[in-house]
Amino acid sequence: QMCDKFTVCENSMEVLVRNNLNLPKVTEEDGLTFTFLSFQDKCLRKISSGLYTFQTYLEYIQETFTSEKQNIESLCYSTEHLARTIRQMVINPNEVVIPDSATQKSLRAKLRSDKTWIEKITTHLILRDFTSFMEKTVRAVRYLKNTRSFSV
User: Fold this and answer.
1) Which residues form a coiled coil (predicted)?
2) Number of structural domains, the chain?
3) Long-range pairs for 75-84 at CB < 8 Å and ≥24 separation?
């Protein structure tokens, strides 16, 4: 929809130039290989922290991508629920990093300061990276569900 509506696509030069958002990512270093239990816990902490961080970005999208407001509201709610659920799976849930209100407020202000055309690119980048993050999250949770005795 972003490509059709705003002509913002992967091959757009502006997308590559603008990507300084520092969005959460999950990598093999975060325990995605699941070789040891400690890496599994590290991965779960990273996923939960990333989902909590994405909340602020998704709220920004909710404000700017008004034609999909209901879908984005649902996405925000589901993301928060998943972050809480995965946090409960962590051996020590207090180790999950949750952005404080000052950090969230600062990020919101930074995102809102962008011009309209950059707003569209920012929305695209957030949704693209969120999709990638969620793909890795799904793989991690499926693996853990099959190797540990818990349900999601």
Assistant:
1) none
2) 1
3) 79/51, 79/54, 79/55, 80/51, 80/52, 80/55, 82/51, 82/137, 83/48, 83/51, 83/52, 83/55
